[in-house]
Task: inverse folding
């Protein structure tokens, strides 16, 4: 079953995460009205989240997201991590 989480960044963008999970996050789709540089980085962000256990903490997700070679425009790794945590909950 798909689970969803959304974060509206103050004075920024909307970041949404849809995921499926059992004991681990098995698939992730990141959407919203944000920008990435390069634009092709979105699948890399999704793969950075996939595979983590469902009891992952936000700090671990932030680190994994920050390790992706991409410039997040209008949001930060913590926002994407927060949307993921909401989807897991």
Result:
């Amino acid at each position: 079953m798909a689970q969803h989480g959304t974060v509206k960044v103050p004075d920024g963008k909307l970041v949404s995460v849809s995921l499926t999970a059992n004991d681990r996050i098995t698939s992730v789709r990141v959407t919203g009205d944000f920008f990435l540089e390069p634009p092709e980085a979105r699948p890399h962000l999704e793969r950075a989240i996939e595979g983590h256990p469902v009891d992952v903490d936000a700090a671990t997700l932030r680190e994994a997201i920050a390790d992706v070679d991409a410039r997040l425009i209008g949001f930060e790794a913590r926002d994407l991590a927060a949307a993921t945590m909401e989807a897991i909950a």
Residues 77-88 form the longest helix (12 residues). Strands lie at 2-8, 14-21, 25-32, 35-37, 71-73. Helices lie at 42-49, 58-66, 77-88.
